[in-house]
Structure formats: structure tokens, C-alpha cells
Write a structure and sequence with these properties.
Layout (H helix, E strand, L loop, with lengths): L3 H23 L22 H27 L6 H19 L10 H23 L1 H4 L3 H4 L2 H13 L9 H29 L1
Length: 199
């Protein structure tokens, strides 16, 4: 099977997210990168909210879900590997949910805010399930076994970024967490491309 389109989707997801973030934040000079959550770029009544929610959450989420299909085709053996596949696919899908339901941070108990929280936190939890279970299948291949240590390192760094979300600049921790999440996606996507090229 040709997994190059899936690999390219995985590579494109972080590039799109970062580009959308920089453009959306640049359009709001008052936006504070150190204290504001990324979600506030697309919150209810925020200027250019649709731009951020579509290009910052929905499209990257779809790309991650599509990438998960190709990674499963390369790594999974039959029915094996379905747990990490579904978890990674769910991570991308829940990112889409976060974009479809922008947070209303003046009414945190509202339906759209609850759905946004489910999307953002659920995407992170699903990613952790995928990242920690994929090595069980990666070690069955000489090619993929080499990705285990780097991928787990990125996963632990993503978790440890949570300690940066306290203090005077909680926004930094969130952005570092996003960085390691998308670095994991990009790393695995580049290897999927290489695997397809040399297999």
C-alpha cells in the first residue's frame, strides 16, 4: 500500500498548526503568548476565531487522523496494533472536536466549552495511549525499532511540559506540550515516508 500521502499528512499537520498559530497571534497584538491559552485564539467572539479553529485545530486534526491510518498500515500486523491506531486516530478526531466547539471562557459551564475541553484534553490522553502502546509493535521490525527511544523521549517531554503550566507564564507550558506532541507526529511521519521509500 502507498503510505506516502499519509506520511505527508503527518508532516503537514505540525507545519499547518504552527503557521496558523503565528498568523492568528500576529493578527492580535494584545494576545499574550505567556499567559493566554492557544484556545483563546478561537474562543467565542474572538476576532478571526474561524480562521484559527479551522486551520489551527480542525485541519491539523484531520491530517493527524489520516496519518494514523498510514502508520497502522505500516506497523500493525492484521488485527494487531489496533489500540494505538484507534488512539492516535481518536487524538486527531478530538482535535477536530476542539475546533468545532470553540471555548466560551466567560461561560465555562456552557455546552460548547465542555465539548472544547473534551476535545483538547481527550486528544492529549488519546495521544499518550498511542505513544505508549506503539512500541509494543514497533519492536517487531528492525526499521521501526530504531524509533522507539526517540518517540518515547518526545512523549515523556510532552508530559513533563505540564510542570511548566504553573507560575507566571502557564502559556509556555502549553505551547511546549503542543511542540512535543507535533514533534512526535512529525518524527513518526518522516519515518513512515522513509519506510515507504526504502521498503
Amino acid at each position: 500500500m502507498n503510505q506516502k500521502p499519509h506520511a505527508l499528512a503527518g508532516i503537514a499537520a505540525p507545519l499547518l498548526f504552527v503557521s496558523a498559530y503565528l498568523l492568528a497571534a500576529a493578527a492580535r497584538p494584545e494576545f499574550n503568548h505567556f499567559t493566554k491559552a492557544v484556545s483563546e485564539l478561537g474562543s467565542v467572539h474572538a476576532p478571526n476565531a474561524v480562521f484559527w479553529n479551522v486551520l489551527g485545530f480542525i485541519c491539523p486534526g484531520l491530517l493527524v487522523a489520516f496519518f494514523a491510518i498510514g502508520l497502522h498500515q505500516a506497523v500493525g500486523q492484521g488485527n494487531a496494533g489496533q489500540l494505538p491506531f484507534y488512539a492516535l486516530f481518536l487524538s486527531g478526531s478530538l482535535m477536530v472536536v476542539a475546533g468545532l466547539f470553540p471555548g466560551d471562557f466567560e461561560h465555562r459551564g456552557s455546552f460548547t466549552t465542555i465539548m472544547h475541553a473534551i476535545g483538547t484534553f481527550g486528544s492529549f490522553i488519546a495521544f499518550l495511549v498511542a505513544a505508549f502502546t506503539y512500541p509494543l509493535f514497533l519492536r517487531k521490525s528492525d526499521f521501526w525499532e530504531k524509533t522507539i527511544v526517540p518517540s518515547l523521549t518526545l512523549t515523556w517531554l510532552c508530559i513533563l511540559s505540564g510542570f511548566l503550566r504553573t507560575g507566571m507564564a502557564p502559556g509556555i507550558g502549553q505551547r511546549v506540550g503542543f511542540a512535543f506532541y507535533f514533534l512526535w507526529i512529525a518524527f513518526m511521519a518522516v519515518n513512515l515516508y522513509r519506510h515507504q521509500r526504502f521498503s
